[in-house]
Design goal:
Layout lengths: L16 E10 L10 E6 L5 E4 L4 E4 L3 E13 L10 E5 L2 E2 L3 E4 L2 E8 L9 E7 L3 E7 L4 E5 L10 E7 L6 H5 L13 H7 L3 E6 L1
Parallel strand pairs: 1-13
Antiparallel strand pairs: 1-2, 2-10, 3-4, 5-9, 5-11, 5-12, 6-7, 6-10, 8-9, 11-14, 12-13
Length: 204
């Protein structure tokens, strides 16, 4: 499984803000077909981010926010297809910011400091191979940085995302035989689904 975050042993950093934002996912359904597109969309015209520490919305209108997602094979999927399991489509183009691994692919993009100064994004995952997959948001918080062309600094902050879905398709994940779920820790993926950090995609 492709990891979407790393953590090293270092001195603890005290962050002033710890933002958590919701991403819309559509269509949210039990199964998809080859060629279908799963869309991720984030709209924030007011540029106020929800701070998990103070439980308040903070104006952050001149910062860069980063999105990192991964699409990992979980069951009945081909091994290491030449051009990945999906294509990523965004305002940057097709597969810009994509990286490939033997059992998955990932996407890393930054928004907020372009000429339109917008945090809004819409990203499509075009499904290319049959199987059961997990769409995983980054496990490690990403840093929020100041737009250096506009301000000199922004308080030390991080951002994470959660899927804005009622059902993360945990039942489909649990239909996979336990020995084939690819988990190093039993129950890890179920917790991620419950926490809206993972969404299961079945491609038929």
């Amino acid at each position: 499984m492709l990891c979407v975050g790393t953590q090293c042993n270092k001195e603890d950093i005290v962050y002033q803000y710890s933002f958590i934002e919701k991403i819309d996912l559509f269509p949210s359904q039990k199964s998809y077909h080859l060629g279908d597109t799963v869309w991720l969309q984030y709209v924030n015209p007011n540029k106020r981010l929800f701070d998990h520490l103070t439980r308040q919305y903070i104006l952050a209108d001149t910062v860069a926010i980063t999105l990192q997602v991964a699409f990992n094979s979980r069951y009945n999927a081909p091994f290491n297809p030449a051009d990945g399991y999906c294509d990523y489509v965004s305002s940057y183009g097709t597969n810009v910011g994509r990286y490939l691994d033997t059992n998955g692919s990932g996407l890393l993009l930054e928004f907020g400091c372009s000429s339109n100064n917008s945090y809004d994004f819409k990203i499509g995952l075009v499904l290319k191979e049959k199987g059961i997959y997990s769409l995983d948001l980054a496990q490690i918080s990403r840093s929020v940085a100041a737009c250096t062309n506009r301000i000199s600094a922004f308080p030390l902050s991080t951002i994470m995302y959660r899927f804005n879905v009622a059902d993360g398709n945990k039942d489909i994940f649990l239909s996979i035989p336990p020995d084939s779920r690819g988990e190093s820790v039993k129950g890890f993926t179920e917790n991620k689904i419950d926490n809206k950090e993972t969404y299961i995609v079945q491609v038929e």
